[in-house]
Amino acid sequence: MKNNETSRNKESNPKVVMLGIGLDNKDGHTRITKGDNFYLAGGSEETHGRMTETVIKVNEKLQSKGKKLDEVSPDEFTDILLESSR
After folding, report:
1. pLDDT at 15
2. At a CB cut-off of 8 Å and minimum separation 6, what does 53 contact?
3. What is the pLDDT of residues 7-28, one digit of tens each?
4. 83, 65 contact by CB (below 8 A)
5. Which of 9, 50, 68, 69 has the most CB atoms lying inside 10 A of its own CB?
6. Is the pTM of this model over 0.85?
7. Are 16 and 69 in contact (CB under 8 A)?
């Protein structure tokens, strides 16, 4: 029974994160940036920088709305992401 209880606990409290993966790295550097609600890996220096800038802006917009990532709908997240990536 303990395994079932553990599975249910994980399902009822999922961790919501933004995941960014850059595939254009040709310089051999390994770039990884982690935060409370995001994980970014790979990419050229420019791509990784842009991903980092975008997740920071998303977090700022969430904070200004008084919300956490797991509190926004997929549509609201998409709107915030599009605003933040401009």
Report:
1. 86
2. none
3. 444 455 668 999 999 999 999 9
4. no
5. 69
6. no
7. yes
Dist CA 82 CA 10 (whole Å):
30
- Reading the block at residue 72, the tokens are 């926004």
Q: How far is residue 14's CA from residue 35's CA, in Å, rounded to a whole number?
A: 17
Reading the block at residue 40, the tokens are: 């970014």
- DSSP structure string for 25-81: --S----EEEETTEEEEE--HHHHHHHHHHHHHHHHHHHHHT--GGGS-HHHHHHHH
In a 10 Å sphere around its CB, with 0-12 CB exposed, 13-18 middle and 19+ buried, how is residue 49 labelled? middle
Instruction: Specify the pLDDT at position 85.
Output: 86
Neighbours of 34 (CB within 10 A): 10
